[in-house]
Every structure is written in C-alpha cells, then in structure tokens.
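User: I'm new to structure prediction. If I give you an amino acid sequence, what do you actually give back? Let's try with this one:
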Amino acid sequence: MPLLRLCVASVLVPLRNVTVPVAEAGVTAEGLARLMAPIGLDIGARTPEETAVAVCAEIIALRTGRAAGSLRDTSGPIHSVG
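Assistant: Good question. You get back a string of structure tokens that encode the predicted 3D arrangement of the chain. For your 82 residues, that looks like this:
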C-alpha cells in the first residue's frame, strides 16, 4: 500500500478502522505499531489546509519532543457539532 494512502487513512479514520486493511496489504506488525491515527493536533481544523497544518504540527512536536494535544488522545468524534 503506498505511503500516501496510509497517511490519508490515518488522518481520516480511527486506528481501529485502519489496522486490518493495512495488515492485509502486507504491513508487518512492526509497521503497524508505528501507525498513528487519527493524526494531527486538536486545533479544531475544518479545511484541508487546516488539517495539513494540524498534521505538520504534530510531526514537529514529535520530532522536537514537545507535548501537544493529539487527536488520538481524545475520546469520541474528532469534530465537534455546531
């Protein structure tokens, strides 16, 4: 499975919905352990551009060792109603 598809899937759906199809595509258990979903900081992103900023911000936070509020640490829907 191309990396881009994995990244997009990680943004759009919870990890539990990604694991089986990714494993069936031949990703190893080690690769699955590295998969993070949903990805992005919880900044209330609504547009594709805002989502890209949220994803990039989480990557930067992980790379620099900073604590930040990731979407995967939340419970329930990632988009608020209203």
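You can read the tokens as a compact description of the fold. Here is one thing that stands out. The chain has a mean pLDDT of 75.
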